[in-house]
Amino acid sequence: MSENSGSDTVFGKIIRREIPADIVYEDNLCLAFRDVNPQAPVHVLVIPKEPIAKLSDTESKNHALLGHLLLTVKRVAEQLGLANGYRVVINTGEEGGQTVYHLHLHILGGRPMQWPPG
Ligand code: 5GP
Description:
Blueprint: H1 10-15, E1 23-26, E2 30-34, E3 42-48, H2 63-79, E4 86-89, E5 105-109
Antiparallel strand pairs: 1-2, 2-3, 3-5, 4-5
């Protein structure tokens, strides 16, 4: 299968505990774990357990899940002490810079962020 076909990814393996990850939060709908290649002092990925490939694949039926993911970002950011702010990024598709085709929200914090991003 092609990379963006919605097939299993490394994140599916993390959900199933087939490969290790530094998990910081989990509930019945989602998982949050530290990025293996951090771009900031705090760099965490929040992913749905449902294997949605990318944001542009979501539909109206996913609205509650998408809200839950954002509220989880807020919760995890508070848990990790990002009281001075943080950035949330969803890379989407080839030109969006997405490399893992399982929807994920990056939380980046612990340093001042620049704008525009590259
Ligand atoms: P994307 O470029 O798709 O927005 O982000 C994918 C992210 O997943 C990257 O920041 C990359 O470092 C991270 N990543 C890729 N493979 C693994 C892995 O096996 N474990 C963890 N914790 N992060 C990973």
